[in-house]
Specification:
Strands 1, 2, 3, 4, 5 and 12 form a six-stranded mixed β-sheet that branches. This protein has a four-stranded mixed β-sheet with strand order 8-9-7-10. Helix 9 packs across helix 11, helix 11 packs across helix 20 and helix 15 packs across helix 16. The chain is built from 20 helices and 13 strands. With 446 residues, the chain is of the alpha/beta class.
């Protein structure tokens, strides 16, 4: 009798476990939000993630919030997250890279840093996410994965930021007050420059004390309109194009034309970008060509009344130029990458974590922190600043073209940065072009 009772209890227990197992087998697919393992495998797994979103700014808070949300939704995953201050992040990451001890997931910048990690065999593709969520992959802006694609049909990160450097901000009240047309081509731009000068208004605010500013904000877009993107990429490689070609000398002549016609305020090479932004927002200049960082700066320093008349567009087209109009210089910012050493359940969890941050919901939350992203979406005006929304809508419609210093060697970038300052002080375009070409040649021959 005792044996029979034990048998019955055992049978009931087994049936209970079987029912529980069947009930827990329902899949819980997440198309746009944070992936969840509820109802799935309860296997305990640990994932490490490093990033540099350690500050109090809204973007940093958004990224940390997305990681925390993933932790909450995936209690079977132990997430060891390290938020490392920006200044110390690159050295820390380089140290563990040298020892081949990368965290499972880590924030990496598009361009040379991610390329170096790939060359060292430290990355594996996140392509499984693109295959699992094809609509998510298709919703990124053109060029979003260019600097994260090191092998055919493979992507190694998904950007969570857009480094847009050449928005044309303009004060519509000043344009209306002085009856000036917002320029759509070079001729109209030079007409506007003359009209504003005639009325005692600085045409374009520029703070070029840090000499990369004119290169990053003006030269890249101006040059692309004249030469086209393909020519620039060939010139960088020394493949059938040279910075001493007449077409690039023409670019420098046009920049010099702006300077010679007093498009910029006096002393532009001796004031910084923050001072130029304040000069512009206070109504002293009609236009400013600057990056997405100006959106953040003005949001924190300008009044609603000052921001209200500001509109956003792209640099005017150049008649007969080889490049397209309506483009913005820039590119992917950074994204989260996957260590090549991460395998099995840890890899699955790591990929889910990357999607939790980089997926549609994550992109939206980052965008709502007034940070540019390379992901197409419709943002509610109530969730972002009006000026940000204007810029984001411009960026969505624009083709992204190269920023010069993202492709040039460090020596060549320094050469053109200093060269633009020299042009503003009377230098010759041909001389600047030759210095740039010589510097780039030295880097390609090493």
């Amino acid at each position: 009798m005792k044996k029979r009772a034990i048998f019955v209890v055992t049978l009931i227990t087994m049936l209970s476990l079987l029912v529980a197992a069947c009930g827990g087998s329902n899949s819980n697919e997440s198309k746009g939000g944070t992936p969840s393992n509820e109802g799935g495998s309860k296997e305990k797994v640990k994932v490490t993630i490093w990033h540099n979103f350690a500050g109090d700014d809204l973007r940093a808070q958004a990224v940390r919030g997305l990681i925390d949300e993933y932790k909450t939704n995936n209690p079977n995953v132990e997430v060891d997250a390290q938020a490392i201050p920006v200044d110390g992040y690159r050295p820390r990451l380089s140290t563990v890279a040298a020892a081949n001890e990368m965290p499972d997931v880590f924030f990496v910048y598009a361009g040379s840093q991610s390329q170096e990690f790939y060359d060292a065999g430290l990355l594996q593709p996140i392509t499984p996410l693109a295959e699992k969520y094809p609509e998510w992959r298709a919703n990124f802006m053109d060029g979003a994965f260019d600097r994260f694609s090191f092998e055919p049909d493979q992507i190694f990160s998904a950007p969570i930021g857009l480094s847009a450097t050449s928005f044309l901000y303009y004060n519509k009240d000043l344009f209306e007050q002085h009856n000036v047309t917002v320029p759509t081509n070079w001729t109209e731009l030079m007409t506007a420059v003359k009209a504003f000068n005639d009325n005692g208004v600085t045409p374009i605010a520029l703070g070029n004390k840090a000499p990369w500013m004119a290169q990053s904000t003006i030269l890249g877009s101006l040059a692309d309109r004249v030469t086209g993107t393909e020519w620039f990429l060939k010139a960088v490689k020394g493949d059938g194009a040279s910075f001493t070609d007449p077409v690039f000398v023409e670019v420098l002549n046009k920049f010099k034309e702006l300077s010679d016609n007093k498009a910029f305020q006096d002393g532009a090479n001796s004031i910084d970008n923050t001072q130029a932004e304040q000069y512009f927002i206070q109504g002293n200049a009609a236009m400013m060509i600057s990056g997405a960082w100006t959106l953040t700066n003005l949001a924190s320093s300008a009044t609603d009344e000052q921001v209200a008349p500001i509109e956003v567009t792209t640099l005017p087209a150049v008649e007969d130029g080889a490049g397209a109009a309506g483009t913005i210089s820039g590119g992917a910012g950074g994204g989260f990458a996957l260590s090549k050493k991460t395998t099995g359940a840890a890899k699955d969890a790591a990929l889910d974590l990357i999607y939790a941050i980089s997926g549609p919901e994550g992109q939206e939350k980052i965008a709502e922190s007034n940070s540019m992203v390379m992901y197409n979406m419709d943002l509610a005006e109530s969730h972002v600043s009006p000026l940000y929304l204007k810029a984001f809508n411009v960026a969505k419609e624009a083709v992204i073209t190269p920023v010069y210093d993202a492709y040039l060697s460090a020596e060549a970038a320094e050469s053109i940065n200093n060269g633009l300052q020299e042009l503003m002080m009377g230098g010759k375009p041909e001389d600047i072009a030759k210095k740039l070409q010589d510097a780039q040649e030295r880097s390609t021959q090493q």
